[in-house]
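target protein:
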Amino acid sequence: VLDWQYGTYVWPSAVVLAQYLWVHRRSLPGKRVLEVGAGVSLPGVVAAKCGAEVVLSDGEELPRCLQSCRRSCLLNRLPQVPVIGLTWGRVSPELLSLAPVDIILGSDVFFDPKDFEDILTTIYFLLEKNPQAQFWTTYQVRSADWSIEALLCKWKLKSILVPLHSFSADKEHLASSSLPGRHTIEMMIISLAQSDGT
């Protein structure tokens, strides 16, 4: 734990997503994984340690977060894991030149409602480019008024809620934090909606 700023703290959502990856570790070798908004990169590091081909990304305008990604790789003996700057909602050469992906990871990227559409725009772009891919995301429920349902419909995406107990992440020590406030964590798998409306 470096400090409590967004991308330099291990948030409870990252621990829960890392647990999901660990439970599914046998399916990860050879999978191509991109972590968006990676920060300290706990889920991406776990995926890489389990044999996935991982690329870590955070906002190109957030050098401290990108440095945090690189530091996590070095501390975990993963110097070969690429770290790139990707800013949500922005089409950049880095986004356009990304290799194919199977899984996109994002822990607590749904933090600020003003970013929700930019995040889903980027995810939609990646899923259109990789139609069989999935976006595995965990987030902290901060307000009952914050929802991405309308944006999922707008971008023709579907979501499946993954119960935390189904992968032993409902334990107090996993989804809790020393930070004040409520720490209810949810997990979703987002993919392209089928043309029949599902």
Residues 177-181 have pLDDT under 50 and may be disordered.
